[in-house]
Design goal:
single chain, mainly beta, Porin, 8-stranded antiparallel barrel, 10 strands, about 15% helix
């Protein structure tokens, strides 16, 4: 974690000292794409349920190499054990969807000098790194609708079978990735971006530790029957005495990741004195 903050600080320091007024510019962007996650139910890149997402962003170009990017995104992730090729997961039979909102601050580094409106510096790959805050709400299918899972305490949260409190529905993430920027006109550009996020939670999918004892859930949980039903949806019990109590349900040693691939149109919104629209 400290290494991430150090890298971000170095990038920000470098960008602040870089460039001159002639190279600075501002732009806004509108993005659409798809998201997926990596965790207990899906371990494959671009696996799980791919749903449409989108966002808007503001980009402050410090010079033709460095930029700050501030964005707001919406995305949906999800996955089903029943679609896995792993028979253990198929038997576990869990599923979820999670509609997430994210605000982010990124530092971008262009491989080549680049500026919207430049005839000679019109294309570049780029890297980015930053920090984000997300809000989430993992849900499972319940009849014809979807039921939020965090209040239920599917792993015994809030009882003696699990942690004393329920997990947070918000947290920090650390985005990193790469993309391409390409000019279309003197004011308009096209961006393609792939970004991975390291989340501060292992509960994007509501799965992390072990099956809670159903007897404890029944006695101590305010949502006892729902906690039993959604905590253990396995096809066959694999624990002792025909119970999955205290049997592995997830892997608490690793937090979840989520990724967002977007296609965006970017509009330059300034034309300051000294700015070159047609190249140097």
């Amino acid at each position: 974690m400290n290494k991430v903050f150090l890298i971000i600080a170095i990038l920000i320091s470098a960008s602040v000292w870089a460039g001159n007024d002639k190279d600075k510019s501002r732009s806004i962007g509108f993005a659409g794409g798809t998201a997926y996650y990596l965790g207990e139910i899906n371990r494959n890149h671009f696996g799980g349920e791919l749903k449409f997402g989108g966002g808007i962003f503001y980009r402050e170009n410090i010079d033709r190499r460095w930029s700050f990017n501030f964005g707001v995104n919406y995305m949906e992730i999800g996955a089903y054990d029943s679609k896995s090729t792993d028979l253990w997961k198929v038997n576990r039979n869990l599923h979820f969807r999670n509609r997430m909102y994210e605000i982010s601050g990124l530092v971008e580094l262009n491989f080549f000098p680049y500026q919207i409106g430049s005839a000679s510096e019109f294309f570049t790959p780029y890297l980015f790194l930053g920090m984000a805050y997300y809000k989430m709400n993992p849900e499972a299918q319940y009849g014809d609708g979807w039921l939020p899972l965090q209040p239920i305490g599917t792993e015994g949260q809030g009882t003696t079978a699990g942690t004393p409190t329920k997990y947070n529905l918000g947290g920090l993430a650390f985005p990193y990735g790469f993309g391409l920027k390409m000019n279309i006109t003197g004011r308009l550009a096209f961006n393609v971006t792939y970004g991975m996020r390291s989340a501060s939670s292992d509960y994007l999918d509501d799965v992390s530790t072990i099956y809670a004892d159903p007897a404890v859930l029944r006695d101590e949980s305010d949502n006892g029957q729902l906690a039993i039903e959604f905590g253990d949806q396995s096809i066959e019990q694999i624990g002792f005495n025909n119970s999955n109590a205290n049997v592995e349900r997830g892997d608490p040693t690793n937090n979840d990741f989520y990724a967002f691939t977007t296609f965006a149109l970017t509009l330059r919104i300034d034309k300051k004195p000294g700015t070159c629209w047609g190249g140097r």
